[in-house]
Recover the amino acids of this structure.
């Protein structure tokens, strides 16, 4: 999990368009613990992902990443493996909210699908700039709405609400 | 300035005169719908951490539908926790094993035009058929709603789908959605609102309108929406609800539309979505002769009373092919009661259909009827993503209930119009 801070030298995992929530969090394991669920994350399209992903890696993907179910285990499974951010051409609307709610950085980046797997990238989520350190290419992301950047830097919705309740104000 | 129905509902919930599309606003929630999978077991730890209870138990509807009936220790535990949560939080609107949330909610009169509703499930757009703004959120988002009674929303634009003409024999709302998935793609809705209009709407039942809005989820829309009319009003009254003033909740003349798409419904053949996406939809004639192991009529999308009627019209006085299993999981307990009363259940079972409990079941891989390696199924459900309905090598085709029933009779995917005169 990150706290909305900058990411430096993260290894890229590259996926295509329309990565759905059944691929990220298969329904068969929805009754199980997050540990069990996370061990099946993305296995239908990349059986090596869970054994090879390392904390701090990032995912770059195409259109509509996280489409389908509202199950937030899709975002949590990536968190479980320490994925630091997901950059995608576009996101499933519910997944996008779920990711931010769990402190998982989700950035809309029109060229995310062009960033090669295995390259190292640096990400500045505030300015919306991604740099491919292997070929010195710069990509731009859509700026995140201010209230979501705040939620991300608080570590997600629950921590964000904790702060607001502690202050005695309503969310 | 002319406002869309969506803008009017969001402005009202945000306590504003008007809102602009693209603007982010905080809204008061009129109703929050949760179920046994994404509900109590996931929100309770968050509420405990925040040290608060549900903000207004009267505005919460809880439905057990994903793990019903319990099949092992884990699912029994989830349901036990769900029941205890309902009691502790004093949630009177708790429907335990009464059917799938998206169908139970309107059946029990909880929805009416103008409401701002969140549901802890991606098929929550179903509620938009009643002229309310209802969209799906995840469990943590829902915990935030239950703690505060509020949530944020980015005011969406409206994508208008104009449907004209009469639905032909053997065709249903499901086919309209499958053809839209193929034409617009799974992200064609761009997390905006898909609003259905045109003369077809006035001719179809609330159940069929629910199918249209339900599958707005498959277009990647935030929700689907249909302005209320006399049919809506009557349904809500019959369900024991109060429709309120439906004239208040209509689009203004000249309200902004991002884009308008038209479908000539009268010319539409039955559609079948090939594995593994609803966007792979083709006319049924392009999918015939695919051998099947299982035919499944179920889910919020495809097992309402009208869906069972469609299946029964094909199955009447006929038998399911040897070696094929036809399973039917009615969308709700009330659907089962009505189907028993009008003779539909007898037609289905006489044809060899195996009746399953009302719930989300095999559609999402949770319950009875999941598939083995390399098995082939045709289902009346909404999604056929890889691995969703069991084994990752299983192949799921989607069709309307006529097509699923006809394919069960023949043992291979076939055009249901062969069996309908």
């Amino acid at each position: 999990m990150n706290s909305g801070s900058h990411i430096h030298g993260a290894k890229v995992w590259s996926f295509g368009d329309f990565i759905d929530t059944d691929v990220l969090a298969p329904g068969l394991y929805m009754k199980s613990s997050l540990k069990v669920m996370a061990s099946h994350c993305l296995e239908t399209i990349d059986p090596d992902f869970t054994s090879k992903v390392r904390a701090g890696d990032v995912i770059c993907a195409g259109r509509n990443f996280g489409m389908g179910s509202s199950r937030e285990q899709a975002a949590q499974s990536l968190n479980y493996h320490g994925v630091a951010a997901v950059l995608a051409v576009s996101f499933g609307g519910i997944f996008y909210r779920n990711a931010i709610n769990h402190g998982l950085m989700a950035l809309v980046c029109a060229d995310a699908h062009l960033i090669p797997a295995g390259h190292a990238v640096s990400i500045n989520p505030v300015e919306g700039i991604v740099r491919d350190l292997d070929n010195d290419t710069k990509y731009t992301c859509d700026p995140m709405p201010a209230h979501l950047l705040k939620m991300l830097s608080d570590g997600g919705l629950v921590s964000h609400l904790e702060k607001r309740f502690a202050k005695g104000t309503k969310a | 300035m002319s406002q869309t129905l969506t803008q009017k509902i969001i402005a009202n919930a945000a306590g504003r005169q008007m809102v602009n599309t693209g603007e982010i606003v905080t809204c008061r929630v009129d109703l929050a719908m949760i179920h046994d999978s994404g509900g109590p077991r996931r929100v309770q730890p968050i509420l405990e951490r925040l040290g608060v209870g549900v903000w207004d138990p009267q505005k919460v509807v809880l439905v057990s539908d994903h793990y019903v009936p319990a099949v092992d220790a884990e699912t029994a535990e989830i349901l036990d926790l769900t029941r205890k949560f309902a009691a502790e939080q004093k949630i009177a609107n708790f429907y335990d094993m009464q059917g799938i949330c998206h169908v139970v909610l309107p059946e029990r009169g909880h929805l009416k035009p103008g409401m701002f509703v969140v549901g802890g499930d991606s098929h929550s757009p179903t509620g938009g058929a009643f002229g309310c703004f209802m969209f799906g959120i995840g469990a943590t988002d829902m915990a935030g709603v239950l703690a505060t009674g509020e949530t944020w929303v980015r005011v969406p634009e409206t994508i208008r789908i104009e449907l004209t003409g009469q639905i032909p024999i053997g065709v249903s709302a499901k086919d309209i959605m499958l053809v839209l998935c193929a034409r617009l793609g799974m992200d064609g809705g761009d997390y905006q609102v898909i609003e259905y209009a045109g003369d077809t709407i006035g001719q179809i039942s609330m159940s069929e309108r629910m199918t249209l809005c339900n599958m707005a989820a498959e277009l990647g829309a935030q929700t689907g929406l249909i302005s209320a009319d006399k049919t809506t009003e009557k349904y809500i009254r019959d369900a024991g609800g109060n429709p309120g003033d439906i004239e208040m909740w209509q689009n203004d003349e000249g309200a902004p539309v991002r884009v308008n798409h038209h479908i000539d419904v009268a010319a539409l053949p039955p559609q079948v979505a090939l594995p593994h996406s609803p966007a792979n939809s083709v006319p049924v004639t392009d999918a015939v002769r695919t051998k099947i192991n299982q035919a499944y009529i179920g889910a919020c999308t495809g097992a309402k009373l009208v869906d069972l009627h469609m299946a029964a019209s094909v199955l009447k006085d006929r038998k399911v092919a040897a070696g094929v299993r036809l399973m039917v999981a009615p969308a709700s307990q009330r659907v089962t009661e009505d189907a028993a009363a009008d003779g539909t259940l007898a037609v289905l079972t006489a044809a060899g259909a195996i009746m399953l409990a009302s719930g989300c079941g095999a559609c999402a891989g949770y319950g009875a009827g999941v598939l083995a390696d390399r098995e082939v199924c045709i289902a009346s459900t909404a999604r056929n993503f890889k691995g969703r309905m069991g084994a990752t090598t299983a192949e799921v085709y989607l069709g309307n209930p006529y097509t699923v029933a006809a394919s069960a009779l023949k043992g291979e995917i076939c055009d249901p119009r062969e069996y309908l005169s």
